[in-house]
Amino acid sequence: MAVKKLELDARQVCGVLKQVPRNIELGCRISKEVLEAADSYLREHREERVGWEIERRQEPKNLLTPFGQITYRRTYYRHKESGEYAHLVDRVAEHGPHARVDAP
After folding, report:
1. Cα 43 → chain centroid
2. Which of 4, 24, 35, 52 could be bridged to 72 by S-S, CB 3.0 to 4.6 A?
3. Is the whole-model pTM more than 0.85?
């Protein structure tokens, strides 16, 4: 009886492990899509970024996540009054220049 249970447990573990690459790929894709959607929202809704003007678009950012490294595209802004430059989506997501997102 114990051998049967062990055999079943091993099959279940193998089944789960086969899903890991797909889950990692999905996690990377979702992370990228969410960040790029947030960037698009900020770009299209001026009321959410009062005083900020678009300087450049489609700048790449590499980010290490629990799923692996992703590269997403973001917009670079300049504040009209202060002259400050920033990638607003990185501020919203609280990503610094050499950011890494740790697992919760």
Report:
1. 17
2. 35
3. no
